[in-house]
Amino acid sequence: MLSIYVCFYLCSCLLSCDFLSLTALQVTGGNMTVVQGGTVVLPCKLTDTTEDLNQISWQRKTKERPRNENFFTIVQQAGPKFVNGEDLRFKFVGSMSDLNGSLQLSSVTLLDEGIYTCIFTLFPSGNHITEIPLNVLVPPVSSLKDNHPALGKEEVSLGTCTAAASKPPAQVKWVIGPLEGKVNAITSSTKHDNDTTTTVSSLLGVPTREINQRLVHCVITSAALSKEETLPFTIQVYFAPMEVIIHERTKDTFECVTEANPNADITWSRSDNSWPQSAVRMEDATLQFLSMTSNLNGLYQCEASNTYGTKLGHLYVHVSSGEIRFDLVVVNVGWIEWVSVASYTYGLLTR
Ligand SMILES: *[C@@H]1O[C@H](CO)[C@@H](O)[C@H](O)[C@H]1NC(C)=O
Ligand SMILES: *[C@@H]1O[C@H](CO)[C@@H](O)[C@H](O)[C@H]1NC(C)=O
Ligand SMILES: *[C@@H]1O[C@H](CO)[C@@H](O)[C@H](O)[C@H]1NC(C)=O
C-alpha cells in the first residue's frame, strides 16, 4: 500500500518538476570568496527560457564605490563595454548564446569587496537579476621583533610576533616546547577601519641566562593563507661579559674567553702601553708568544666588552734565566692573587 503511494508521489513529482523546468526561468549566481591579488569569476547563468536575450548588464556596490552603479554591459552586436569608466581587470568570460553572463575580475583588492548584480534583459518579460556577494580575504603581513631584554629578574616581553592587517583575523600562537612554564604569551588584536585586523602576541618571561639562545616558534594561521606560517625565534637575553677566563691553548698561546650577549669584543694590551712587536702576536682573542726575550716581561690585559659592559683579565709574563713564567692575576675583593698557570724552560718555546 505504502509503495503504491510512494510511486504515485514520485511519478507526479517527476512529471510536475519536468513541467516546471520548462517554464521556471531562473538566474543563478553564487557567493564568491577570493584572496586579495587573486582572480575570481563572478558566475551568472540564465536557464530555462526561450525568450530573446537583449542585454546582460552588471552593477556593483563595493567598498570603493558604496553607491550601486552600472559598470559593464554586453549586447549581442556591440559586445562587452564599460559604463562609467574602464577597469580592464574585468573581462567578460561568458557567452550570450549560452545565456552565460559570467565576469572575471583579476588583481582583486579589498576595495572590490561588495555586491555584484547581474541583470539579464529579456524580451518580453524584462529584467531578471541575481546578486553575487564577493568576499575578499587579506593574508596577514607577518613579522617578528626581538625586544632586546637585558638580563633581569622581572617578567618582560622577550619578543613580539605580529600578523598585520588580516581579514579574517589571523590566529597567532607560540610553540615553546620545553620552555613551558618559563615563558608565556599574551595576545591582543586591533580592528582597522577597512575590516582587517592586526593581531599581536608577546612572548613574556623572566630574562635569565637559562632561556638565552633557546629556539621557539611563532605560528600564524589564517583563512587567507594556504598554509600556516612558522617563524623561528631565538630568544636573546642581553648581558655584559661575565667573568673573563684566560686559558692556555698550547704552550705558547693563551686565549681570553668570556660569556656575553652580544658576543664581546676582545682586545689585548699591555699595562705599560708598549707592545713587543716581533715577540708577541695577537689574533682575535688569542695571544701568542713567538720568542723568548726579556721584552716580553710585563702585565698583559685582556678587555672583553660589549654594549652592556666591560670585564678585564690579566696575565703576567716573566722571563728570567732561560725560563718563562705565566701567572694569572686574579683580582678578588680586598686582595690580588697571582696564580701560576704555566712555566717553561727556554727550549719549549721554540719556533
Ligand atoms: C557569503 O559567504 C561568506 C563566507 O562563507 C559568508 O560570511 C557571507 O555571510 C555570505 N554572504 C551571503 C550574502 O550569503
Ligand atoms: C559560464 O562561463 C564560465 C566562464 O567561461 C564557466 O566557467 C562556467 O562554467 C559557465 N557556466 C555554466 C553554467 O555553463
Ligand atoms: C587596512 O588598514 C590597515 C591599517 O590602516 C593598513 O595597514 C592595511 O594596509 C589596510 N589593508 C588594506 C588591504 O588596504
Explain what you see.
6% of the residues lie in helices and 52% in strands. It has 1 helix and 27 strands. By secondary structure, the chain is mostly beta strands. It is rod-shaped, with a radius of gyration of 39 Å. The strands form 7 sheets. A 6-stranded mixed β-sheet has the order 2-11-10-5-6-7, with no helix packed on it. A 5-stranded antiparallel β-sheet has the order 21-24-25-26-27, with no helix packed on it. A 4-stranded antiparallel β-sheet has the order 12-13-16-15, with no helix packed on it. It folds into 3 domains: 22-137, Immunoglobulins (Immunoglobulin-like); 141-234, Immunoglobulin-like (Sandwich); 245-348, Immunoglobulin-like. Residues 1-22 have low confidence and may be disordered. It has one helix spanning 2-23; strands at 26-28, 32-35, 40-42, 45-47, 52-62, 69-75, 79-82, 90-92, 103-105, 114-123, 126-137, 141-146, 156-166, 171-175, 183-191, 197-205, 215-221, 229-234, 245-250, 253-257, 265-270, 280-283, 286-289, 298-306, 309-320, 323-332, 335-345. The structure holds 2-acetamido-2-deoxy-beta-D-glucopyranose (NAG) (3 copies).
Distinctive features:
binds 2-acetamido-2-deoxy-beta-D-glucopyranose; Immunoglobulin-like; 6% helix; mainly beta; five-stranded antiparallel β-sheet; 351 residues; 3 domains; 52% strand; rod-shaped; disordered N terminus; six-stranded mixed β-sheet; single chain
